Please model this.
Amino acid sequence: MAAKRAEQQVVVEATPHACFAALTDYERIAGWQSTVKSCKVVSRDRDGRGREVDWKIDAKVRSVSYRLEYSYEEPHWIGCRYVDGDVEDLDAEYIFEDRGDGTTLATFSLRVEPGTWLPGKVVDMLNDQVMKRSLEDLKRHVESD
Model:
């Protein structure tokens, strides 16, 4: 089964640090990320950030659960790789670029191998409804603080 790749971007009226802090506050993320049903930190790195995190996501087609292992370059990059769960493989990253005018270009890149065939329309819907909504939720959350 071929991996599916997608990327979404949004300009956020906040610093890279604010974007980074929001997305690494795993205990509160389900309260403002509309596709997140639950999120639980399983282990932490030496800086207290989530190292392994369990997720349950509403992917519109069905709920998907998985565990990801995170790496960080604070405040500009969050990367993760698949550990276990309902898909065959997954890795993703958020990049936060300071635009020098008080805004940040937030980029979300995802590569997922679902382990089962998905029609192109379903892949497009996941890209639009899950990834795009994730960035829109980040923008709304960070800009409202």
Notes: DSSP finds two helices and seven strands in the chain. The mean pLDDT is 89.
